[in-house]
Q: What sequence folds into this?
């Protein structure tokens, strides 16, 4: 077995959220993290397989888990929160119900025997890489940048999982469902200021953004409004769907809900990259439709690693 | 005789917590806890015409908050599956079209080609120019690759055995 962690990229990271993939790659390289992309992965089925065909969803996940195992990994991360949720939930279900696993294997000719741990990317950063290692890479502390960390739904809400609770100030804890802090801790390690706000884990509407856009627009409007009220300079996300929904129709949503100023929506890996001194171009900061401008103080000292207020 | 669900909905004591946290509640015909109640009483037929399972965003707020550890989100999923299996008319045809079309694209090659998937969805729902301005901005930013991802070897054959739809 390899020591490295497998990286399941998922479809969005190859398309609409290329910025997430490239910034993650830059950041992992700087952190010298042992994390390598899987080969031959398939789409997790996203909300569609899950919404319509439970057997298909389990089979798609089992195939990915089997690929990871066959490629020698014991642990994988899936940066996309939706992919992560599908994989971790399927893994739990297959582990708890051996008869279901046997049925999936029999039906699809797979030979998955369990034993792949699916880790949240934020937990990977806080627990595997470590906040101090992240802090050590900081070349341009994001001093004064006020960040509203938005976890969305699928990073933090794992049904039937014991890990949904935990001490409020523990590092990691992306899986704590009500008020996660892992991303806030990372943001603090970058020298920026994570904010206390009310919409950390409120839903952005997911695919309703396309299929019932007025319902989703209301949810997005509330999230943006609260981030503005909290005084955020930007929202940080760890999910392609969250980035897409908060960013791409923001002009119209801001007009409809009377939200005074634009709110840039960045991937947490882009913020990490900026603090590590990676260029905005390499991080594809310009891919977002709402522009983000932040003057990094050249020649700044390494950031202090402080836990942010809970 | 109540229909069986993978989740044990009989544990529900109607506290209403699932509905309190549901971000979509105000757009739903009936609230999640009311749906669970009808199901526990074996009245699935009364749930069928409701938009509730179709508008459910799958956010899992209800699932992680239920004091009786009922994954209400999974129940919503099962309701959709059962409705499709029964060939019942769908109260939210756009939602159904989106998911069907997504799965069709997935099965072509094992990965999603976002541009084609969205374009086909627009055609299916007879609004070919929906979000056209946005799509062109995304194209310019390189966020909607024109070329489809390479098909995974043997996937098309494999996926036929994988699900029911
Ligand atoms: S939260 Fe659980 S117990 Fe309470 S009403 Fe909803 S399903 Fe029933
Ligand atoms: S998963 Fe569905 S029913 Fe449950 S809270 Fe979210 S939108 Fe409402």
A:
């Amino acid at each position: 077995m390899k020591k490295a962690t497998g990286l399941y990229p998922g479809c969005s990271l190859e398309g609409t959220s290329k910025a997430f993939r490239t910034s993650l790659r830059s950041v992992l390289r700087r952190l010298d993290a042992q994390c390598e992309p899987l080969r031959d992965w398939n789409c997790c089925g996203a909300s569609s397989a899950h919404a319509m065909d439970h057997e298909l969803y389990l089979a798609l996940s089992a195939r990915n888990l089997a690929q990871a195992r066959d490629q020698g990994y014991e642990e994988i991360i899936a940066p996309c929160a939706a992919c992560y949720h599908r994989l971790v939930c399927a893994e739990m279900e297959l582990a708890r119900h051996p008869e279901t696993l046997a049925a999936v294997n029999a039906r699809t000719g797979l030979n998955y025997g369990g034993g792949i741990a699916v880790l949240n990317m934020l937990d990977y950063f806080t627990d595997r890489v470590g906040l101090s290692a992240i802090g050590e890479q900081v070349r341009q502390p994001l001093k004064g940048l006020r960040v509203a960390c938005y976890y969305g739904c699928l990073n933090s809400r794992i049904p039937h999982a014991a890990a949904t609770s935990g001490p409020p100030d523990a590092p990691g804890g992306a899986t704590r469902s009500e008020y996660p802090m892992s991303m806030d801790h990372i943001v603090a390690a970058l020298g920026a200021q994570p904010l206390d706000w009310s919409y950390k884990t409120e839903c952005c509407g997911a695919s309703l953004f396309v299929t019932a856009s007025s319902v989703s627009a209301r949810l997005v409007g509330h999230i943006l409004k609260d981030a503005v009220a909290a005084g955020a300079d930007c929202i940080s996300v760890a999910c392609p769907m969250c980035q897409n929904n908060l960013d791409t129709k923001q002009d119209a949503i801001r007009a409809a809900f009377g939200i005074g100023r634009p709110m840039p929506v960045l991937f947490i890996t882009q913020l990490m990259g900026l603090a590590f001194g990676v260029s905005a171009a390499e991080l594809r900061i310009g891919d977002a439709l709402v522009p983000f401008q932040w003057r990094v103080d050249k020649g700044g000292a390494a950031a202090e690693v402080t836990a942010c207020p809970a | 005789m109540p229909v069986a669900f993978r989740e044990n909905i009989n544990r529900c004591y109607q506290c209403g917590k699932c509905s309190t946290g549901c971000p979509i509640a105000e757009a739903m015909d009936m609230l999640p806890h009311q749906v669970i109640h009808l199901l526990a009483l074996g009245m699935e037929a009364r749930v069928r015409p409701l938009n509730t399972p179709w508008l459910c965003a799958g956010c899992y707020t209800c699932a992680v908050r239920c004091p009786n550890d009922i994954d209400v989100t999974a129940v919503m999923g099962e309701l959709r599956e059962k409705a499709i299996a029964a060939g019942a008319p769908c109260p939210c045809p756009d939602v159904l079209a989106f998911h069907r079309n997504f799965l069709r694209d997935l099965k072509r090659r094992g990965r999603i080609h976002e541009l084609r998937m969205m374009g086909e969805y627009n055609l299916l729902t007879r609004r070919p120019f929906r979000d056209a301005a946005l799509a062109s901005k995304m194209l310019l930013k390189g966020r909607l690759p024109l070329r489809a991802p390479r098909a995974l070897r043997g996937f098309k054959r494999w996926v036929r055995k994988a699900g029911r739809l």
